[in-house]
Design a protein that fits this description.
It contains ten helices and seven strands. The protein is α/β, with parallel strands linked by helices. Strand 4, helix 6 and strand 5 form a beta-alpha-beta unit. Helix 2 packs across helix 8 and helix 8 runs antiparallel to helix 10. The N terminus is likely disordered.
Length: 252
């Protein structure tokens, strides 16, 4: 696979914001249960910033749990789509390397599929700065469950076509100096084959126009329809959650 800069890959999402919002998977309710369990406090009423919020998939879940959530998103197209779908959620433009919040002002920071776009040497200290003592940083991603045979086969075909590590920039890599506790949460959703391929096309590998991606998706459609002739598949995911609590006694 031809290397592309992180900046180019990050910018690519805004070009497909509506498709991203329509086809990227949600998160299971067990994720926020796990966040509350590991953080040691309820989300209802908590001061939360969802950083790299994209189109607001995780932001909406946090809002629905009762959190006082602010979305932070650098991309113009993604921010516009987030605002369109979640008009009542406060939105600021920014990123995790320099957070637009006062010191000690937040109970929780969340990064859903977005921590990898930050510089942990900067975003880690920023998290410590804006979190209150006893506040928490939660980093999580939806990863394809490669223990499922058809998903493992698809992952192998993508790596054969475009090289290993195509998905690494979408995975949790918390390297901030904080001590993370990890939880893995498995879940699935049943969707049409074409919806699965539309979801696949929202990953940065496909958005930046790597040579051969269109042909790959066309061939993959034929293969999947042979494998699943009714046109429906069960996508299996593992939510990879890492949560770190800021040292110190909780403040009032």
């Amino acid at each position: 696979m031809t290397d592309a800069s992180d900046a180019s890959r990050a910018r690519s999402f805004s070009s497909a914001a509506a498709r991203y919002a329509d086809h990227r998977p949600d998160y299971p309710t067990s994720l926020l249960d796990a966040v509350e369990d590991l953080a040691g406090f309820r989300l209802a009423g908590a001061r939360v910033a969802d950083v790299g919020a994209g189109t607001g998939i995780a932001t909406a879940l946090l809002r629905d749990r009762g959190a006082r959530v602010v979305a932070v998103e650098p991309g113009e197209g993604m921010a516009a789509e987030l605002h369109r779908r979640n008009p009542g959620v406060p939105l600021v433009r920014g990123d995790g390397n320099r957070l637009p919040f006062a010191t000690g002002s937040l109970d929780l920071l969340t990064y859903a599929q977005s921590w990898h776009w930050t510089d942990p040497g900067r975003s880690g200290p920023e998290a410590l700065r804006v979190l209150r003592p006893g506040g928490a940083l939660a980093v999580f991603s939806n990863d394809p469950d490669v223990e499922v045979e058809w998903i493992a086969g698809q992952q192998a075909r993508i790596e054969k076509a475009f090289g290993p590590g195509w998905y690494v920039n979408e995975r949790v890599r918390p390297q901030s100096g904080l001590e993370f506790t990890r939880r893995l949460l498995r879940w699935s959703r049943r969707i049409p084959v074409d919806a699965h391929l539309a979801k696949l096309s929202t990953h940065s590998l496909f958005l930046i126009g790597e040579p051969g991606t269109d042909a790959f998706l066309a061939a993959e459609r034929e293969r999947l329809l042979e494998q699943f002739p009714d046109g429906w598949i069960e996508e299996h995911y593992v939510v990879d959650l890492g949560l770190a609590v800021r040292p110190g006694a909780p403040s009032d």
